[in-house]
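Dear colleagues,

As part of the handover before I leave the project, I'm documenting each prediction I ran so the next person doesn't have to rerun anything. This entry is a single chain, and its sequence is reproduced below.
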Amino acid sequence: MNRIIERGTALKQRIENAAAAISSCHRGAPPETALILGTGLGAVVDEISDAVTLPYGEIPGFPVSTAPGHEGQLHIGQLSGTRVIAFEGRFHLYEGWNMDDIGMPMRVACRLGISSAIITNACGGMNQELQKGDLLILDDHINLLGANPLTGANVDEWGPRFPDMSEPYCLESAHRLKQIADEQQIRASRGVYVAVSGPNLETRAEYRMLRSLGADVVGMSTIPEVIICAHEGIRASAISVVTDLCDPEDLKKVSVEEILAVAAAAEPRLTRIIVEFLK
């Protein structure tokens, strides 16, 4: 039990040290909204004005991104009149990080005072109505990562031991995001995301199983950050970009290069929705 408490105390100190280091590097009001930007989806940072940029490697105790399409730096500034902190790159189980590392960006953002978060990811589309480049606004998820960021000693000042998950994604925000997409004539729908550990893509049998569970898309991220938002009382929204199609009856090989290319092509549409939403 002492080891569990010691680990929780060490993590709390690590997060507070990182937050203090970030605070010392920028001026102005604290951020209101955190952006967690997924694979190949970092171009929204170009829209941030008066930005202060800090590589992850310069933040004490912070992990460093190794996944393709993750630049590994944060930006603090103004986006659509909202003070934001944008994490250009996240961390995954398949890289070898544990849940303490994966949760660092969101935990640090919470210490800096955010009240909302927008999380993005690249994913595989299992719902056969989806097309490459479509956006899926999440309204629920299935956690098959085999791990949870709340495992271990609970920090009571951050949130309750057993947080409610009846609405992990703000449904009002999801409705508004879909409304904006319709107004902008951007293909978008709402649905369910399932997360697996990766890094390999799934087999035909696995796609059949995941679809039978009720998931529309599959990825390897996002859920840990959303669980932390629920724990901390942060309003969370998430948007997936469908970068490949996962029809088990007609499954095609896909490369990382193809996934990044589709993400890059969809990114301007994703940026338009986020910019308008933050207004």
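The beta strands are 33-37, 49-55, 73-79, 82-88, 116-125, 135-143, 188-195, 217-219, 235-245. The domain at 2-278 is CATH 3.40.50.1580 (Rossmann fold).

All the best with the project,
I.
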